[in-house]
Structure formats: C-alpha cells, structure tokens
Amino acid sequence: MTSVTAMRTVGELLKSKKPDIQSIGPKASVFDALVRMGEKEIGALMVMDEKDEVVGIISERDYARKVSLKGRTSRNAPVEEVMTPVAEMYRVRPETTVEECMVLITGKKIRHLPVFDGNKFIGIISIGDVVKSIIAEQESLIEQLSNYIGGKYV
C-alpha cells in the first residue's frame, strides 16, 4: 500500500486559494466593512493601516457583538473600535498543520485565522477552508484503503 499523505500545512492550503486578500482601513466605518464583506461573500477583513501593516481583523461576529447588540450603528462606528486588535488575534504560521488549525478554531470558537510568516502577513484561512481540506484528506485515505482492501495494491 502507498503511504498515507501527511497532514496538509497552512502554506499548502494558501497556495490553493486565490491570493486576493481583502482589507479595510481602521478609520473606515463598520458599514463599509460589512458592504465589502457582502460583495466578496466573506466573513472577515484584515484591518490594515496606511503602511499596509496589519492592525487587526474585523468579522461579522465583531459587528453582531460590538455594534448591533450595544445599540450602536454601523454607519457611525469606525472599524478600529470594534475590530480584534493584532495583539489579541489568534494566528498561525505556514508550517502549521490543518489539523492544528481545526483544534484552534474549535477550541477558541473562531472562524478566521490570519497567517503570518514571522511578522509578515501572508494570508487568511477560514473554518470552511480547514473543513474542506480535512474532508478531501479523509476521502483520499478512504480511497487508498478501499484500493488496498480491493486488492489493487499487490
């Protein structure tokens, strides 16, 4: 039987995604962030300053918990007041395995993981990316085992 493939890494996962990173400035309104998320059909944006440095992340959940539930409006609340600051973000490295991401996502109840190579931001993965990768890996393993049981490997 051929060897079972090793767990995919975040770096490999990022290579299979579009390199399109969506971001917004910290002074923009939460409404503008929500519009951009809606247009791109995504659930989070990286918040980047004028030097293209990451200062935080804003998600639909941030909106629900920090704007809507507190009686504020998305049109007058700046992103920087509701985002998760960079110092509080959970993040991963390119060498982090998809399995480790799943543990972090489920354990911390988060949906998006920014990816940093050292201090350099290189992408973002979502719970959907992680789940799809794990399912694809399991399907491959099932096929390998079926072929082994069926006598394809001699």
Can you give a write-up of this model?
Helix 5 packs across helix 6. The strands form 2 sheets. Strands 1-2-3-4 form a 4-stranded mixed β-sheet. The protein is 40% helix and 18% strand. It contains 6 helices and 6 strands; from the N terminus they run H-E-H-E-E-H-H-E-H-E-E-H. The protein has 154 residues and is an alpha+beta fold.
Q: What would you call the structural class?
A: alpha+beta
Strand order of the largest sheet: 1-2-3-4
Strand content: 15-25%
Mean pLDDT: 88
Show unreliable segments: 1-5
Sum this structure up briefly.
By secondary structure, this protein is an alpha+beta fold. The protein is 40% helix and 18% strand. The strands form two sheets. A four-stranded mixed β-sheet has the order 1-2-3-4.
Write the layout of secondary structure elements.
Blueprint: H1 10-15, E1 23-24, H2 30-40, E2 44-48, E3 54-59, H3 60-66, H4 79-82, E4 84-85, H5 98-108, E5 112-117, E6 120-126, H6 127-149
Parallel strand pairs: 1-2
Antiparallel strand pairs: 2-3, 3-4, 5-6
